[in-house]
Structure formats: structure tokens, C-alpha cells
Design a protein that fits this description.
By secondary structure, the protein is α/β, with parallel strands linked by helices. The chain has one domain (7-175): HUPs (Rossmann fold), CATH 3.40.50.620. It has six helices and five strands. The protein has helices spanning 15-32, 50-70, 88-98, 119-126, 147-151, 166-175; strands at 7-11, 35-43, 78-85, 103-107, 131-135. It has a five-stranded parallel sheet, sandwiched between helices. Helix 1 packs across helix 6 (166-175). The longest helix is centred in the middle third of the chain and has 21 residues, at 50-70. The radius of gyration is 16 Å and the shape is globular.
């Protein structure tokens, strides 16, 4: 990422998690002088008319634009993209390739048998189109805490020498200040 500015893709699958993901992305982008894009993916189940999905996509775009406007405390601007795809994972993958994303920030679904199954996150983790940063909310943080503080209590990084070893370094440096 030394040759160009960082490009971060933030797929929003739950509006509740958007503020925290935006703050983490903004913290990273401040140090990297990059750009961020909120992504909404409307799944097109077999048999649903494409016109219905387009209507849903328009509403989704409006929601994502409002979310970026509500985050007025952030000094980073985010663009918005909504696409229709057969799965969320496919839509994220296509957007990552088309926008040459360096990093995709997703909400951490949890671990173990208590975690709800999320086939899209599992698919993206199994074959990521870019570096992935899974952000885990801190369940002990008070509701009044800022999203970055409540979303980032600790960071884990792979051992030096791994292909993605630099990612957590700049991610954690920006997000966990």
C-alpha cells in the first residue's frame, strides 16, 4: 500500500453495527490517507424479479447515505455503493475486485457453537478477495462509549513473515489509539 492510498471496503449487513465499523475504518484511514466505501448487497434469491431487488437496492442506498451523514464526528468521507448479487459474499467479492480494495472490514460473528452461522462471512474468510479485518464489539462497554473505544479493546496479529502481517499493524495502530 506504499504505492497508493489505502482503499477500505465496509460491507454493512446490520445497521446496528455500522457506526462502530465506520469509526474503526475512519481511524485507520486517518493514518493511511485513503478512501472508504460503504457497501450494501441485496441478495437476489432465485425466482425474485430483478425489479423488486432494484427497489430494495434504492432504499438500501438511501439508508447507507443517511448513516454516513449521521456520523458527522468523523473527519473521513465515505462513498456508498449498493449492488444486487446472488449472495452477499459474491457482492463483496465483486466490489472488492472492481474497487481494488486493500482491506475489507466486517463485523466479527463470534466463535464456537454459540455463534450464529453466517455463510457469507465464512465464505469470505475461506477465500478472501482482500485483507480482512474482523471487528469484534466489546460486550462489556457502556452504550454511551464511543464506537471505536467500545469496538476495540484488543488486537491480535499474525506472526511476522506471514503474507498479511503488516495489515494488523496499521489497522491496530489506527483503530486502537
Amino acid at each position: 500500500m506504499a504505492d497508493r492510498s489505502a482503499r477500505i471496503l465496509i460491507p454493512i449487513t446490520r445497521a446496528r453495527s455500522a457506526a462502530g465499523l465506520l469509526e474503526v475504518a475512519a481511524a485507520i484511514l486517518r493514518g493511511e490517507n485513503g478512501s472508504g466505501m460503504l457497501l450494501g448487497v441485496v441478495e437476489l434469491p432465485q425466482g425474485r424479479p430483478i425489479a423488486q431487488s432494484v427497489t430494495i437496492a434504492r432504499r438500501y442506498r438511501s439508508l447507507l447515505q443517511r448513516l454516513t451523514e449521521l456520523e458527522t464526528g468523523l473527519d473521513v468521507r465515505f462513498s456508498v455503493q449498493v449492488r444486487v448479487a446472488s449472495t452477499v459474499a459474491q457482492g463483496v467479492r465483486e466490489a472488492a475486485y472492481e474497487n481494488t480494495a486493500d482491506l475489507i472490514i466486517l463485523e466479527w460473528p463470534g466463535v464456537g457453537s454459540q455463534r450464529p452461522s453466517d455463510r457469507n462471512v465464512d465464505d469470505l474468510v475461506a477465500d478472501p478477495p482482500a485483507d480482512l479485518l474482523l471487528v469484534r464489539p466489546d460486550p462489556t462497554a457502556p452504550a454511551s462509549a464511543s464506537a471505536t473505544a467500545s469496538w476495540c479493546r484488543s488486537a491480535a496479529a499474525p506472526a511476522p513473515g506471514w503474507p498479511c502481517a503488516r495489515l494488523p499493524t496499521w489497522s491496530a495502530r489506527g483503530a486502537c489509539r
